[in-house]
Amino acid sequence: MQTAARRKIRPFDWRHNPGFGIFSLIVMGFLYLPLAILVIYSFNANRFVTVWTGFSLHWFSRVANNGDIRHAAWVSVLVGVLATICSTAIAIAAALGFERGGRFKGEAAANSLVMMPLVVPEIVTAITTLIFFSSIGFHYGVLNLVLAHTVFCVPFAMLPIQARLNTIGTAYEDAGRDLYGGEWRIFMRITLPLMVPGIMAGAILAFVTSLDDFLISFMVSSAGTTTLPVYVYGMMRLGVTPEVNAISTILLVISAALALVAFLISRPNEAGAAASAATPAATATT
Prior knowledge:
Shape: globular
Structural class: mainly alpha
Order of helices and strands: HHHHHHHHHHHHHH
Oligomer: single chain
Strand content: under 5%
CATH superfamily of the largest domain: MetI-like
Radius of gyration: 24 Å
Distance between the termini: 58 Å
Number of helices: 14
Number of domains: 2
Helix content: over 70%
CATH topology of the largest domain: MetI-like fold
Number of strands: 0
């Protein structure tokens, strides 16, 4: 009787709601169909974007042979790598402070302050950063971009790391302390190895965020430090061309691939975490 009653009482499943599947397809099509069209027309042989005349890689070749585009791409990668390193280091320290530092007064306010770039409109961040740099006379080209991107990317890098620390808990670290391991040794041999998936996922998200950023780069960049999104914006002032489609396709593929890698790395895997922590916990005192 009780078993039959439990089988009849099931949580409501939105997937079985009438019309939900069609509505989902419409939303997905609205979001991703323009991207598919952009990718398709980036292989168009015709100079006119909307007139298909045949398949061609000509525009990708034009992009690869354009010195200005290569320079803008190099600036984007350089700024992205440096900002990723700095923001990830700050994110590691912040995540450890929030998850392993114990409760403290003003913790919620501090966490909200770190996450503020996710809430505040990016245009506000870009304008205030430009005003701040101008007011102190800080005009150092790439360094301005790196600092601005670092501040903006910290929450993106911190979220996967903080989630990883919250997922693994403190059981492995407590086991190391039971074996009389010192805090630094426990961190290096237990906590840090277990944080690696979160660190890698956070670093990838930070790099993608920096690589794709436009508003902050547009406001802060100076002559000779134009990033690729800003350069594409300048090209679009003359109209959308197949070269713009080709550049956008390249950025889309790179961003999607890195986001997929970050997702796969950050997936919870308690069995793998336990296996990777078994040896460090046992050797924390050696």
